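Usage

Read records sequentially. Each one opens with the input sequence:
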Amino acid sequence: MASKTTIVLSRDQMTEVRQALHARIEEGLAHEGREIRAFPAFVSPPSVLDGQALVVDTGGTNMRAAVVSLTPGKAPAVLKGPVQDRLPVRGTHKLDGETFFAIQAKLAASLSPPKNLPVGYCFSYASKSEPSLDATLTHWTKGIDIPGVEGTRVGQRLCDALSSAGVDPSYVHVVNDTVACLLGGAVVHKGPTPSNVIGLIVGTGTNMAGFFSPKSAPKLAAFGPVGAMAINLESGNFTPPFALACDDAIDARSPNPGRQRFEKAVSGYYLPWLFAELMPNFVGFDPEQGSKALVDLRDLNDGSEASEVAGALLLRSAQLVAAGLAAVVDFYEGDEPITILSEGSLFWGDPQYASATKAALEALLGRTDRVRFERVADVNLIGSAVVALNRSVVER
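and closes with the structure output:
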């Protein structure tokens, strides 16, 4: 029988998850092709940026577009939009690659943006960035699988689609959504060290990003003398210890068995399916409704097994995220507070999730003053504009 005690992690188990992920991150920062891919984003902590950019933000559920202005000495401003639409990639919807990019371009064109703007493309799937600031999709995540896109440069494909839609961009720079969160937070961060920021996504999927120096990321040496650089960890691919039978079952039935095991235990897309696996005879629950259905069940707080299991799955998710954050915090030197820029429908949509994550993280760190969580409006749009207007740290 499923129960809270068999799902929720102990303090010792969270510590073991923290240590295991830290070791996997170390491997990914030193070598290519490891479980934690640690993709360099080729963007340093933001300095002075000035100009306007068209941004396109494509997530696991929705897509957005806006025109964003960055002006020295002023707060970032969204001049047009954001306009938003649902991304038709689930259920009976079957897109091909060309249509996938065309619908994003159509949304951007609806803004009637000025001609020849640089474009920041926030693309929230596992992609390897290039010094040119284009990126190649390595594999789909978040339960999505659109044929004809893996292995292609997504920035060039969006650029072509935008041109076909009459937008005429000057160029397209690609950024992962977690890195966009990181960079957007660094722009508005009030502290003296903009690199003391971690980007966190917990929504349909999950991921973390941070700024790493060549000292902690030896593989950056291949790009010459560089300073701190944003790195997309692709932490959702971590295989955490203490997986349950339900985790194994959901993984086996997924489009990508053996991959994204951390994401499948944490994210808003997979949690309802874990509940359905644990409670197969519970009537009226539809996993397609997403994590809100799970939150509503927990908040019934009626002492039922269903309410208890829903709450335990959500709490375990927050515990795993806290252990993951602790593993990243361990790479940050000094004692200055670290700002965690958090985004995602699960992290902020569940009224208990942020506080549960914070409590677990503080317990793991043994202190309450090391980290602080912040939410910045339109942080991914701001971060995408940073990438659009920022030159690569590697000469093209």
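Summary fields computed downstream for this record:
- The radius of gyration is 20 Å.
- The first strand starts at residue 39 and ends at 40.
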